[in-house]
Amino acid sequence: MTLREIAVTAVAARRPRRTLRLRLTAWYGSLFLLSGAVLLAVTYGLVVQAFAGNSAGNAACQAPGAGCHTISTGQAQAIAVQEHATVLSELVSRSALALAVVAVLSVVVGWFIAGRALRPLRTITATARQVSAASLSERLALGGPRDELTELADTFDGLLARLEASFTAQRQFIANAAHELRTPLARQRVISQVAVADPGASIESLRAAHERVLAAGAQQHQLIDALLTLARGQAGLDKHEPFDLADLAGRVLADRQPEARGQDLTVHATLSPAPTAGSPRLAERLAANLIDNALHYNLPGGQVEVITQTRDSRAVLTVANTGPAVPAAAMDRLFQPFQRLAADRTSRGDGLGLGLSIVQAIASAHHATITARPRPEGGLLIQVTFPRPQNGSPILDTTANRHAKSTTAALPPSAATERANRRPGSQRNEHGHASA
User: For residues 241 and 302, what is the distance between their CA atoms, to the nearest angstrom?
Assistant: First the structure.
């Protein structure tokens, strides 16, 4: 650093910092000084105008012989002008002095008033400097009148509350994910150690051990894939592509036919065109998770209903299922990662606890709303409503399906697919309306 740069830095360091309080005080003083100068100028003009009307006439002595004498008009005017000038000079000098004194006082008073008005900002600044990831529970709780500063403080408190909830959820998610990943790893290690330590291990026992290790690895792969999908859903969408919920739900139902038959479930599908825009891959995962959840948490001989429709220009997907009763107080827990209800709700214990969390993340990425409520007879009804298409957003052309009437199908365990309300000439694929 050169001597010139050092000198410039030293001069800049000695300058008073142009704080908001200093700027407000300067504004207060400048405005008061300007207002006082204008008032002084107006007063000066009024006095000059008053003197101008009284400067004419003779100055005559009213008592002749008493040392008085009469003067001419010109002399009287000259004396009046001189007196007026003296009075005006005194007026200007004294007014300027009074204005200067009051201006200094106004600057001092403005400095204290600005400091008092900006005190909440200093409180907010001090709290913001102290807040860290470990102290997000601190709040301003600023009192006083409801003005802009208290609104700012309340907004800051709300931000801290949201950050605290987000950090808490993140810590809980990391802890749960680590626990879920550690379980299959520990299982793989134990199985391998037992197989290696067995001195009389046969080919069949080693094969069985390897199959169990592969099963644990598949569980890990499934969990990691679910976590990646959850992360993609939470990251939002970069682009919006057109798709039809009916097509996505139809493909998912076609893939789930063997599972539905194996569980002795009857699936009713009413798939009307429901075009929207977003990520078709994530939307299909959303439909798959909802349908898998309905199949997984069901009763033998139960039912699943899948409906796609357009309501008020919004694409809507509804999935309902029979099953054990779900407490209304536990609805929020169902959409939290790795949260499972009591064991009596589940027919199997192999769920990851991420299905509905992924549904919520994908719906949030599409700005869709989720409505979930327990059914009185048992089971759940979950409805996902996508937003209206924005201007300029691509929308799937459903001209070919415009004349396709909504079709309902039911698949009993050992019965053929039953078709109803199908118009001739419909171009929809066979599995688009078939039950799972």
Answer: 36
- CA dihedral (95, 101, 105, 108) positive or negative: positive
pLDDT tens digits along 371-418: 999 999 889 999 999 998 765 555 555 443 433 334 444 444 433 333
Compute the distance between CA of residue 148 and CA of residue 161 in angstroms, rounded to an integer.
20
Edge-to-edge strands, sheet with 303-311: 369-374, 380-385, 314-321, 303-311, 266-271, 408-410
Using pLDDT thresholds of 50, 70 and 90, give the confidence band for residue 116: confident
Report the share of the chain in percent with pLDDT over 90: 18
CB distance 279 to 346 below 8 Å:
no
Beta bridge partners of 409: 269
Residue type (1 letter), 3? L
Q: Which domains does the chain have, with CATH numbers?
A: 3-57+70-117 (no CATH), 148-230 (1.10.287.130), 240-389+398-414+427-433 (3.30.565.10)
Give CA separation, 320 vs 155, 261, 298, 308, in Å: 39, 18, 10, 12
CA dihedral (409, 413, 415, 417) in degrees, to 10, reads 30
Helix (H) or strand (E) holding 410: strand 408-410
End-to-end CA distance of the chain: 76
More confident residue, 416 or 118: 118
**408-410/266-271 β-pairing:** antiparallel
d(CA 125, CA 153): 10
DSSP per-residue string spanning 291-338: HHHHHHS--TT-EEEEEEEEETTEEEEEEEE--S---GGGHHHHTSTT
Sign of CA dihedral 197, 201, 203, 207: negative
In the predicted model, is pLDDT for residue 109 greater than 70? yes
Per-residue tokens: 10: 């030293």
Is 70 exceeded by the pLDDT of residue 54? no
Residue 236: left if φ>0, alpha if ψ -120 to 50, beta else—which one? Answer: left
Tokens 């990851």 identify what position? 352
Task: Quote the CA–CA distance of 54 and 80 in Å, as a whole number.
Answer: 8
- The pLDDT tens digits for 198-238 are 888 888 888 888 888 888 788 778 778 777 777 777 677 77
Q: Convert the pLDDT of each residue in 331-348 to its tens digit.
A: 878 887 777 665 444 344
